[in-house]
Amino acid sequence: MGGNKINSMSLNGLDAKTFFEHEGGITYNDFILLPGYIDFSLDEINLETYLTRNLKIKRPIVSSPMDTVTESRMAISMAMLGGIGIIHYNNSIEMQAKEVRRVKRYENGFITDPVVLGPDNTIHDIDVLKETHGFSGIPITEDGTQNSKLIGIVTKRDIDFETDRTRKLKDVMTTQLVTAPAGISLAEGNSILKESKKGKLPIIDKQGRLVSLMSRTDLVKNADFPFSSKNKDKQLIVGAALSTREDDKERLDELVKAGVDIIVIDSSQGNSIFQINTIRHIKKKHPHVEVVGGNVVTAKQCKSLIDAGADALRIGMGSGSICITQDTLAVGRAQGSAVYHTAKFSKEYANVPVIADGGIAHIGHIVKALSLGASTVMMGGLLAGTSESPGEYFYEGGVRVKKYRGMASHEAMEKGGGKRYLSSEDRIKVAQGVTGTVVDKGSVINLVPYLIQSLLHSLQELGYRSIQELHSGIYEGTLRFEKRSQSAQAEGNVHSLYSFKEPHLGLLRMGR
Predict the structure, then answer these.
(1) CB of 223 closer than 8 Å to CB of 202
(2) What stretches of 357-495 show up as alpha helix (H) in DSSP?
(3) How far is Cα 365 from Cα 507, in angstroms, rounded to an integer?
(4) Mind giving me the DSSP string for 105-122?
(5) Which of 136, 154, 490, 501 has the fewest beta carbons under 10 Å from its own?
(6) What is the DSSP letter of 56?
(7) What is the mean pLDDT of residues 122-143?
(8) Are 335 and 361 in contact (CB under 8 A)?
(9) What DSSP character marks residue 351?
């Protein structure tokens, strides 16, 4: 860690232990991190981190399982950018499983369960598939299943200008196919795609039956998104939310069938017998699925869920911009203190990573959450309003906005969001969230790289080459903290100007 290896007594500021054990509830805006020593460039910084005990991702970012934040489009983009999206459960079992499948099928080295049609299907059937799954390159087999011989393929160029959408596929499909034998490597398949300049490469067995499919667009995506979060089969990874209710056991089974990698148990207060039993059930029935428990804010809560088998913990209670739990119920904890104490305990007790969930309003909050021991940060409001978030844009007071709501707002609870509060069947519903609007932020494809680049600069300013080094600095005492007064917070923000233009919607407020 270069210049960080000096006697802590000679440093200004306080170490994390002294700072957080002698102060009350501390949140992100209440402190500043003191700079370290820079002896490396930005490209030497490694942001790889543990999302759970057994799963690493290249970027420490997670999108929240909220119905105005994460469905398949957001989850795909987050995974492509090195993070992961957690698909909400404010929908039917079938719809949530379909959203998971969309992510798993979006980019694959080998698509092992490709959608196929038969020769007597119509162009309209492909239109329906495109609307449902987002793709239109469909292999055609003798009987419309993978169990029969491949006889053609229909791509966008075959049907784009066809006005009669009732035409049968046998009349428009391409029959001169470039195929590859089962057993070839991913590199060999990519080479054939490059040389043939075809969009799809069917992989067939000795009987001519379709085994899997490769897509040319995946080659382009791999080049554009080198940090993509993928499993061993080269599929994008995705998570899904689950409640602790008994009927969600059926939801769990369908999500696993769809290929979900991580289950996030979505509860406002995770230290309950209901969640403990749910974690045990998941780990027993589906031991290969990673389970994130929560939400929790104290060491005692952490211990309960870790003992039950949780692979990671989600930290935060009442700290989100649309959450009013702390005011409504007088229960919760300041997010800075919550992240520090839970991360410290979880690391010492079982080396379980924690996800800082809530209160991430600006770029500076991301590095502050990581500096308190979080391995990743979960973002809701920061990603709401992007083009990948669910919902339609509309204008409010002349400003282009999207709706953003808490999962315990009255509006969300009417659609099932109250499950996380163990109250979806209550006759009188106590709202712990609100509904609001957020300004159009553009695409996460532009926003997230901006956040990541800023995070790299932050780590360089602090003098750490990785999140692991940053965490070592927390517990070794080389990372130094200082409390900020209200006037110091005002001083650290833009001031004394008649007018100014904020960069990227004001996200560059590093000190806030």
Answers:
(1) no
(2) 363-371, 410-413, 444-462, 467-476, 486-492
(3) 10
(4) HHS-SSBSS---B-TT-B
(5) 501
(6) E
(7) 81
(8) no
(9) -
Which residues are within 8 A (CB) of 46 and not within 5 positions of it... i.e. 6 or more apart? 465, 466, 467
Angular region, 505: left φ>0, alpha ψ -120 to 50, beta rest:
left
Residue 135: closest CA among 109, 115, 112: 115
Give the pair of three-digit tokens for residue 331: 């229960």
- Residue count of the chain: 512
Task: Return the SS3 of 159.
Answer: helix
Q: Which residue has the higher pLDDT, 377 or 424?
A: 377
The sign of the dihedral angle between the CA atoms of 19, 352, 445, 86 is negative
| Terminal-to-terminal C-alpha distance of the chain | 26
Q: State yes or no: pLDDT of 280 exceeds 60.
A: yes
66, amino acid identity? M
- Which has the closest alpha carbon to 467: 45, 83, 55? 45
φ/ψ (deg, to 5) at 76: -65, -50
- Beta strands in 352-421, from DSSP E residues, in sequence order: 354-357, 376-379, 394-396, 399-405
Written as six digits, the tokens of 407 are 């999962």
Tokens 């940090």 correspond to what residue? Answer: 227
**What is the pLDDT averaged over residues 155-180?**
88
Please count the other Cβ atoms lying within 10 Å of the Cβ belonging to residue 131.
9
CA 136 to chain CA centroid, Å, is: 26
d(CA 403, CA 439): 9
Residue 421: which pLDDT band, with cuts at 50, 70 and 90? low
Statement: residue 423 has pLDDT above 60 = no
CA separation (Å) from 322 to 88, 270, 327, 444?
16, 19, 12, 20
Phi/psi of residue 413, nearest 5 degrees: -65, -30
Indicate if the alpha-carbon torsion angle 149, 155, 158, 159 is positive or negative: positive
Q: Looking at residues 407-429, what average pLDDT do you find?
A: 52
- Nearest-5° Cα angle at 83, 503 to 444: 35
Active site residues: 323, 420
Tokens of 70: 């994460």
CB 439 within 8 A of CB 399: yes
Residue with tokens 């207060």: 269
Q: Other CB atoms closer than 10 Å to residue 351's CB: what's the count? A: 10
Residue 134 contacts residue 166 (beta carbons within 8 Å): no
